Amino acid sequence: MSAADPRPVLLSLRGVSRVHGSGATAVRALRGVDLDVRIGELVAIMGASGSGKSTLLNIAGGLDTPTEGTVNLGRHDIASLDQKARARLRRRSIGYVFQDFNLIPALTGLENVSLPRELDGVPLRTARKEARTALDEVGMADLADRFPDEMSGGQRQRVAIARAFVGPRRLVLADEPTGALDSATGEDVLRLLRARVDAGAGGLLVTHEARHAAWADRTIFIRDGVVIDSTGELAEPESLLSATDGH
């Protein structure tokens, strides 16, 4: 977004590098990445396999720490927090949506969604109420008592999105969330993500599809761990629903 954008910065990465290994076998997954995500902004990340997209997402969400640089979520410097504090911040402030759903098979939809709040010490009654609200938001209230293996792929992904939305979370990170879904269901998932961001969250979306990136406010392109380009808003996403996949 423009430097004149008045919306507050929610997530800020400065000079972020990530090196795996050491010596002759060291691999630089990220190299000096700078990135801001503002409240109400969805940013898409595109790049070839192995370009550093998922590493960037993991560092943005506190699942990994940078070798160099800073990562700030609001007033919190994620990289400086110990493991326990990072886990607490993730439960309270960050929602993840993965391609393979990552639901717990032995828990119902309601239990999967309420679990992060319960782990954070929220009373069971309150956690379940928040979970029902999140499930209703994604159109899954009627399936709250079903187990994941009783749901379709699209239904499981909606439950996973509800889990990412539950409670006061302000940052949503989505790693190829439509990869295991048919095109129509995938577009429904992106509508939900877009609506959440418009309601006051910030979002990062990793995708290979230009028509999916069109749901974002802007797109950054990454190659060999380096951000090589950034674009403004692409064509209106509704106009791309019938577009064929491009690779």
From TrEMBL:
A single Gene Ontology CC term: plasma membrane
Keywords of the record: ATP-binding, Nucleotide-binding, Transport
The keyword Transport appears for this protein: yes
Domain of life of the organism encoding this protein: Bacteria
Leader sequence residues: none
GO molecular function: ATP binding; ATP hydrolysis activity; transmembrane transporter activity
InterPro entries the record matches: AAA+_ATPase, ABC_transporter-like_ATP-bd, ABC_transporter-like_CS, ABC_transpr_LolD-like, MacB-like_ATP-bd, P-loop_NTPase
All residue ranges annotated as the ABC transporter domain in the record: 11-246
This protein's record includes keyword Transport: yes
Protein name as catalogued: Putative ABC transport system ATP-binding protein
